[in-house]
Amino acid sequence: MRVFLTGATGFIGSHVIPELLGRGHRVLGLTRSDAGARLLEAAGAEVHRGDLEQPETLASGAAAADAVIHCAFDHDFTTFVENTKKDERNIAAMGEALAGTQKPILITSGVGIGTPLHGGPATEDVLNPRHANPRIATELAGAALTARGIDVRTIRLPQVHDTTKAGLITPLIAEARRAGAVAYLGAGHTRWSAAHVSDVARLYVLALEKGEPGARYNASVEEGVTARAIAEAIGRGSGLPVRSIAADEVQHYFGWMAPFAALDMIASSAWTRARLGWEPTGPDLLEDLAAMDFSARSPG
Questions:
Q1: Cα→Cα distances 53→6, 195, 248, Å
Q2: Which of 24, 28, 60, 233 has the fewest C-beta atoms lying within 10 Å of its C-beta?
Q3: Residue 216, H or E segment
Q4: Per-residue pLDDT averaged across 99-119, rounded?
């Protein structure tokens, strides 16, 4: 298949490219810059010029391919709500280009969207349309396309990591440096699910080749790593002190990430593994944090 890949030069997308090429697919990668075009060509991908601010450029890429993998997302959290609306517009535009075809589109969300109302690990069968996380806009956009008979499959991401980046943990390191210490709330029992980027990239390709219309797939390998374990790993790597804090100290130590301090973001992938035969092999989160280079600046 010729696969239109958004976010092709990004952290996850750049790992998806070799997985696709290794399985005999061709890649049409989205980029807005000359530098990005050179990276794509060097990786063996074709270049499609476009921009997340111009949905029509994504639609033309989708129309030129046999399938779409949509990894791109604007991760500027100062405009997070607007960025989710932008993602909604881009998904709608690509869906319009796929209407009336059997071409699949894989979209990207977060595992937290599948958290049950009564608590417990997020699962693939749960979709709460009134979820408080603005990223629900992505899944509602996908659901609207599914209702029109378009083949939409959703990959839900945990904290995706290697030794250079680690999801929300990367900006957490920056906040710890600003505050002068790595903090966790209370006993540090809250947990975040995680997966190595190589395993996540492989899952996208499995979902493309073996997935089902309307299905959601959790990319979590570790169901949950405790906040205390994460903080202690950052402390060892960075040399910063590690401390337990009370609720009234969260804003100081977590900054803009304060809403995440008390979140228990655990997720099961048992259904995903069984349906797709996904067998993760990458290092776990604490292994990667132990091998991360904390010198000079925050990783990533």
A1: 13, 29, 38
A2: 24
A3: strand 216-218
A4: 94
